[in-house]
Write a structure and sequence with these properties.
The structure holds two protein chains of two kinds. Chain A is an alpha/beta fold. In chain A, 35% of the residues lie in helices and 31% in strands. Chain A contains 14 helices and 14 strands. In chain A, strands 1, 2, 3, 4, 5, 6, 7, 8, 9 and 10 form a ten-stranded mixed sheet that branches. A four-stranded mixed sheet of chain A has the order 11-12-13-14, sandwiched between helices. The relative contact order of chain A is 0.09. By secondary structure, chain B is mostly helical. Chain B is built from 14 helices and no strands. In chain B, helix 5 crosses helix 13. Classes of the chains: A alpha/beta, B mainly alpha. Chains A and B meet through helix 9 and helix 12 of A and helix 6, helix 10 and helix 11 of B.
Chain lengths: 371, 368
């Protein structure tokens, strides 16, 4: 009798089994991979556009159609807009595979952080998703472009963002790092910039969006981003210079950066940026130097060091004089060294006039297969 | 009255009971609690708390050694006297009962957010509660074997998570050190210590069950050492990956930390959901242990050992329904915080006072 009762009880439990109760069939889900958010045009706060992958099209060998579809709706919150989009999609919208969030320029200059709050609360999301800002246009224009290699836009954007250590012209960070920077620096920081070329057909991953007080205040182009990345980046960088009778290119493969706040005897603050790089000479169009001779290498190293130092100075000048925002994070170095002194300063006011000394030492340890 | 398992349980098993029994969902939330008070110095709170923790293990073993054949309920009246003994015993029962209700509620809220949105929360709650009741109704030996079996399913994923976290840690997040002085670090220690609510029960109730209880100290220290390392890794990982600003905005920093990690080329995109395996094992084991402490103590104190099985099932089902008194997750967090602070009293202060009384008044076996 006891065994019968146990069997009945086990069957009862199995019938109630939660896995069967709430089975989630992935073929009944509409996975949103990109969320593009723009400023509302009417009386609504946001226009939300979604890139929804069509799983069946992902593996079509000769797929003429797109492997994704795009839907837009307006709303005062992302949740409201998604509710409207859901009314047009015969499958349940899911943000569990959201990879990229795009923000148009107009919204970035206004209240885009409200949209971030939604994402932070949303339980299904993964914080590895990327946040990107679109220069000169609305973010939904990116969804209208054609993917260059991938099967859908998010795939291309994620692959491109993973090249951050291979290209100094881009600045990229994960959503969580961006939010963390903004919160710790009073809304100042650097975000990923995208732009569109060739009548909106090609996505260009170059440049940086600059923020102050949680709003977009400016853009850095590719070369300005390259210069800024000597301080904030951590990847490969190629330095070009005209020396003698030709162009020389030096690719940095390893770097060691030190930023130190220095107080002189009068109590005035300055910063010393010391950068040591190690890399390879990848191009040598002139014949002014013989790389088999150590003194020639030393000469080339000196020229490259001066060039990199000039780039760093230009990055600091752009931040201090032109934009007037500490997006390079020099204040954070002071805060880490002496939080009390940092708090005693009106950082926003004093930052543009703080002297910054730059010392660069570029080393060329290899020069390819030809000296 | 006591289960006759003395010949079968090796003292080394206490290490796995401590590890499986103490690690529960708090390991994902503890960085937020400590960071709230200690900021980026939370790791210092964990480090110093670890030193105190080892001292507490010494203290608990020393107390248990004074009464080698008896558990904490049996010698409570000898140590505290009748009136105070009753107050402490009833207080301890209430403390465990609150934990049972809270932990089950927390389990159901998280389950609902992450997995089962439409299933009535009572179903997973009942399943877990009845499963735990069935396990502990077989007694201590089965509980001990269960902890040994589950240990590696818990520890290996945790270590794997930290290894994956390591390249994403930004060490700048740990500076400046001691920005707000040492007081917040000391406050952080209180929160760190509060996660060890099962430790006292495991040592002071299970002590007589081990066949060579005199050699319990080393495995107990080892078990606590592993938990200390896990908590330290979790805290360092959360601060290094998320930064304190993001931790303060996160309900479960431990879960958020793993959702930041990218594994290019890995076919499963949402691989972090594997973390729910150690969580489910951890919360089940901790819940089962607490249910065991409560029902074992209750039946022993009130001489109801013959009805123990029925009481176990009644307590398990009762804990499921008492959860309905708590209206939302904000209350769960609030009561959890109060509960964490009361842990200091039940887990550390009372045993410390008991040892002090025993030493001063020469109670128990004073040769130890």
């Amino acid at each position: 009798m006891k065994k019968v009762l146990l069997t009945v009880f086990a069957l009862f439990i199995m019938a109630l089994s939660t896995g069967c109760w709430e089975a989630v069939d992935i073929s009944n889900q509409a996975f949103v991979t990109t969320l593009a958010i723009d400023k509302g045009e009417g009386n609504k706060k946001f226009i939300v556009s979604t890139e929804i992958v069509k799983p069946g099209m992902l593996f079509e060998k000769e797929a003429d159609g797109k492997a994704y579809l795009m839907e837009s709706a307006e709303g005062d919150s992302i949740a409201e807009a998604l509710e409207h989009i859901q009314t047009r999609i015969p499958r349940l919208l899911s943000l569990s595979h959201l990879r990229v969030m795009l923000v148009g320029e107009a919204l970035a200059k206004d209240h885009f952080f409200d949209a971030i709050e939604f994402i932070q609360k949303y339980p299904e999301k993964a914080l590895r998703l990327r946040l990107m800002f679109i220069k000169d246009t609305e973010s939904r224009a990116v969804l209208a472009a054609r993917p260059a290699i991938g099967r859908y836009i998010a795939e291309d954007l994620v692959l491109m963002s993973r090249l951050e250590n291979k290209s100094a012209m881009m600045h990229t960070n994960k959503l969580i790092d961006f939010i963390g920077d903004m919160r710790s620096r009073g809304g100042q920081g650097m975000g990923t910039m995208l732009s569109l070329e060739e009548e909106g057909q090609k996505i260009i991953y170059k440049g940086t969006a600059v923020f102050d007080k949680y709003k977009l205040v400016g853009w850095l182009d590719g070369s300005e981003t390259k210069a800024a990345n000597w301080i904030v980046g951590d990847g490969y960088d190629t330095v070009l210079l005209n020396a003698g009778h030709g162009i020389y290119a030096y690719c940095v493969e390893d770097r060691n950066l030190s930023i130190k706040p220095v107080w002189n005897e009068q109590g005035a603050l300055s910063f010393t940026i010391r950068l040591k790089t190690d890399g390879i000479l990848v191009d040598e169009q002139g014949y002014d130097y013989d790389m088999r001779r150590p003194q020639h290498i030393a000469q080339v190293e000196k020229i490259f060091s001066e060039e990199v130092a000039a780039q760093i100075r230009s990055a600091v000048e752009k931040s201090q004089k032109e934009i007037g925002v500490d997006y390079l994070g020099l204040g954070e170095y002071l805060y880490r060294q002496d939080p009390q002194k940092f708090k005693a300063l009106d950082w926003e006011k004093v930052y543009p006039d703080i002297p910054v000394n730059v010392e660069v030492n570029c080393l060329i340890t290899r020069f390819g297969l030809s000296p | 009255m006591r289960e006759h398992v003395k010949e079968t349980i090796d003292p080394k098993v206490i290490a796995s009971i401590l590890m499986v029994g103490i690690v529960e969902f708090e390991i994902f939330t503890i960085p937020r609690k400590i960071v709230e008070v200690a900021g980026r110095d939370a790791w210092l709170s964990v480090l110093l708390g670890g030193v105190i923790l080892f001292a507490v293990v010494f203290m608990l073993i020393a107390l248990a050694k004074r009464f080698p054949q008896r558990n904490m309920f049996e010698y409570a009246f000898d140590v505290w006297g009748k009136p105070l003994g009753w107050i402490i015993i009833i207080g301890t029962f209430l403390y465990w009962a609150v934990f049972l209700v809270m932990a089950l509620n927390e389990f159901s809220w998280i389950n609902q957010i992450l997995f089962l949105r439409n299933v009535p929360v009572i179903i997973p709650k009942l399943l877990m509660a009845l499963g735990a009741a069935a396990l502990i109704s077989y007694g201590f030996a089965v509980l001990a074997r269960f902890s040994q079996l589950m240990l590696f399913f818990m520890i290996i994923p945790f270590l794997g998570v930290f290894i994956l976290t390591l390249p994403n840690i930004y060490w700048g997040n740990f500076f400046p050190v001691l920005e707000n002085g040492f007081i917040p670090v000391l406050e952080g220690i209180i929160y760190f210590m509060s996660i060890f609510q099962c430790m006292t029960g495991i040592i002071l109730i299970f002590y007589p069950f081990f066949n060579r209880s005199a050699s319990l100290l080393k495995p107990a220290l080892f078990g606590m050492g592993v938990i200390f390392v896990l908590t330290m890794l979790e805290t360092v990982g959360a601060i290094g990956v998320l930064g304190i600003e993001n931790i303060n905005e996160s309900a479960w920093p431990g879960v958020d930390t793993i959702t930041v990690i990218e594994l290019p080329g890995f076919p499963v995109e949402r691989f972090e959901l594997w973390l729910t395996l150690p969580w489910i094992i951890g919360i089940f084991a901790t819940w089962a242990l607490t249910l065991y402490f409560l029902t074992y103590g209750f039946t022993q104190v009130f001489h109801l050992t013959a009805q123990r099985k029925a009481i176990i099932y009644m307590a398990a089902v009762g804990a499921c329904f008492f959860g309905y008194i708590i209206p939302n997750y904000s209350y769960v967090i609030m009561i959890r915080d109060i509960f964490s602070l009361s842990s200091i009293v039940f887990v550390f202060i009372l045993p410390a006072l008991a040892l002090l009384i025993c030493t001063l008044m020469k109670k128990g076996d004073s040769r130890v």
